[in-house]
Amino acid sequence: MDALPLPSSPFDWGRRIGPRAALVVGFTVLLVIMAVLALDSVRALREIEDTSAQIRHEDLVRERALRKIRSTVYESGNLLHEYSLGDPRQDSRKSYGAQLNDMREHVNDALENCLRGAPANLQDHLGKLAAELDSYWIAAQHTITDESRNQAHLHREALAQRTAVLTIATEVSNINELELQVAELDISKVYARSSHRLQDFSALAIGIGFLLAASTIVYVSRLERHAEEKYHESVRHGRELKELSRRLVDAQEQERHAISRDLHDHVGQSLAALLMDAQSLVDSNTISGPDRATVEKIKALAEECAEEVRNMALLLRPSMLDDLGLVAALEWQGREVSRRSGLIVDVVVDDFADNLSDEQKTCIYRVVQEALHNSAKHANARRVRVSVREVPNHVILSIEDDGIGFDPSRRRGMGILGMHERATRLEGEFVVDSSPGRGTRLRVDLPLTPTVHPGGVSP
Amino acid sequence: MKKLRIILADDHTVVRSGLRALLERHDNFEIVGEAESGRDVVALSASLHPDIVIMDVGMPLLNGIEATAALLKQSPSTRVVILSMYSDESYVMRSLKAGARGYLLKDSAAPDLISAIQAVSNGRSFFSPSIRQLLAEDYVRVLRQKGAVDSYELLSPREREIFQLLAEGKTNKEVAATLFISPYTVETHRGNILEKLGLHSAAELILYAVRKGIIH
């Protein structure tokens, strides 16, 4: 037959693997978010830094170019002025023209530098500046090349043009500065955006973290509660088991008592009466021959039967325990074992009032019975000493044999367990001291005023 | 001849009727009463002063051994034969200490009952043969196990003679008369005997004698 598949327990899934998997996923997501967040922040910061540096660089370049334009234009003005004051000879005119051309070249280079990468807004103004510059250069050239009579007029015109150029250049410079501010504003916008993103992601991470922490706490406390329940359950089971075993011992003892009494009172007495009646029949001399032989046979059988019943009753519950007390019962037990096994049994009783409760008597008697059985059957002992003595509030039983011994930490048979159980349920102590080759010593220490269990054996 | 007046004490009716059937076959026994408990037999003996009480050990209210001690206080001349389910010496010893002179195993009582009654009425002790055998065996076994010297060997011939007479139930005076010596001498011998044998009472002395097979 096929083995039944193990049923998958929804309890386990719901309670253990489910939450655990959810927690693993949650923590993974949290870690990913935090990693992304960190990378993104680093990237954003670098971007802002780069942009900012670039903008500043461009601005600087432009500013420098504008300054160059301004100073060159200014210089060219001075040149024109110098020219207008000097003699208008052909060669000097040429030299001034060449200088002016050089300046124009420089300014054009600078303007080009300015135009490169300039924002649209600035480009318009730069275009205007270029146009004004062109006009200026033309006017300046005119001043030099024109050999006519109106030097002063031309010079004035060029100067006016220069002023316009310088004005525009200043304007451009202002705009450039404005542009820088705008760019910086942009950067701070980017920064703010990235900062918002950082905040959002952080909030998300914190939220997930909270959720995870909460569910972890819930999960762990549920596990704890579960473990606690299990613990209490096992404690309860232990207690129940103990109670059960106590009741079992009680029930067994009661049962034995009852059966023993029945055997003794009913079967035993009836057999005794039967034997007397049979004897009467024999004594009456009314029967003879085969009938007499039959009656004798009945007598013999009944006697055998009676002895059997007596032995059974004694084994179940020795009547001495009830009739004559513990000491007599222990001495009888010792003699019986000695008679059957050849073991030498010394029963030593000191300062013992023999006023124990029925449960205590039974306990000691049964422990001795079991111990003697073990000594004779398993320990190969030659001699056993059973001692019972009373100290204040305690009765101490000790049983020592000279047998082969055993290792109590390794081997604990039902017999030892039973003795232990009997002693502890009367709140007593049970100690086994033995080792291979060194005999066995058992010790039972019972308090003389124990809690009497309601289910105990009645006397 | 005067009839022996007997009381039967046993809580089991079948046993009492069995005993009655056995005893009524003999003309010299008269059953004067029956009791079902230890208390009953003590009360009955106090009023009837019987010669013999056949006493079961396991009786309600007061067991046979305690009842024996109680009734002998009120009727010292009565002789008690114990009927018991148990052959163990602890019962025999307690019975002897209580003052009983006969101890019969209930199962084997029938054939020996008459002899037991006759023995105790003559002042002697009587034990079921199976008990005598058991006690003797135990005695020998213990001696062998312990490798001890049989203390009986320590007694002088004169002491053994006195020991036997005492074990048969004779008083110091009777022993003195039998041996033609003074009761004080008997008392001295008795003390020595008890000491040599490690005994403490008349009951122990009788039990010892049974173990040694000196009395039957």
Describe the secondary structure blueprint for this structure.
The complex is a heterodimer of chains A (459) and B (216).
Chain A: H1 10-85, H2 90-115, H3 120-145, H4 151-283, H5 290-316, H6 319-323, H7 326-341, E1 344-350, H8 358-377, E2 383-391, E3 394-401, H9 414-425, E4 429-434, E5 440-447
Parallel strand pairs in A: 1-2
Antiparallel strand pairs in A: 2-3, 3-5, 4-5
Helix pairs in contact in A: 1-2, 1-4, 2-3, 3-4, 4-5, 7-8, 8-9
Chain B: E1 4-9, H1 13-23, E2 29-35, H2 38-48, E3 52-56, H3 64-74, E4 79-84, H4 89-98, E5 102-105, H5 109-121, E6 126-127, H6 129-146, H7 157-167, H8 172-179, H9 183-197, H10 202-211
Parallel strand pairs in B: 1-2, 1-3, 3-4, 4-5, 5-6
Give structural attributes.
heterodimer, A: about 450 residues, alpha+beta, Four Helix Bundle (Hemerythrin (Met), subunit A), Heat Shock Protein 90, five-stranded mixed β-sheet, 9 helices, about 10% strand, rod-shaped, disordered N terminus, disordered C terminus, B: about 220 residues, alpha/beta, Rossmann fold, Arc Repressor Mutant, subunit A, 2 domains, six-stranded parallel β-sheet, 10 helices, 6 strands, about 55% helix, globular
Beta percentage of chain A is: 5-15%
In the CATH hierarchy, the third-tier topology of the largest domain in chain A is known as Four Helix Bundle (Hemerythrin (Met), subunit A)
Strands across the major sheet of chain A, in which order? 1-2-3-5-4
Biggest sheet descriptor of chain A:
5 strands, mixed
The proportion of strand residues of chain B reads 5-15%
CATH homologous superfamily identity of the largest domain in chain B:
Response regulator
Uncertain residue segments of chain A: 1-11, 450-459
Helix count of chain B, per DSSP?
Answer: 10
Uncertain segments of chain B are none
CATH architecture of the largest domain in chain A: Up-down Bundle
- Estimated helix fraction of chain B: 40-55%
Secondary-structure-based class of chain B equals alpha/beta
Q: Largest interface, counted with CB-CB under 8 A?
A: A-B, 37 and 32 residues
Sheet with the most strands of chain B?
A: 6 strands, parallel
Give the beta-strand count of chain A: 5
Radius of gyration of chain A: 61 Å
Q: What are the secondary-structure elements of chain A, in order, as H or E? A: HHHHHHHEHEEHEE
Oligomer: heterodimer
Rg of Cα set of chain B: 18 Å
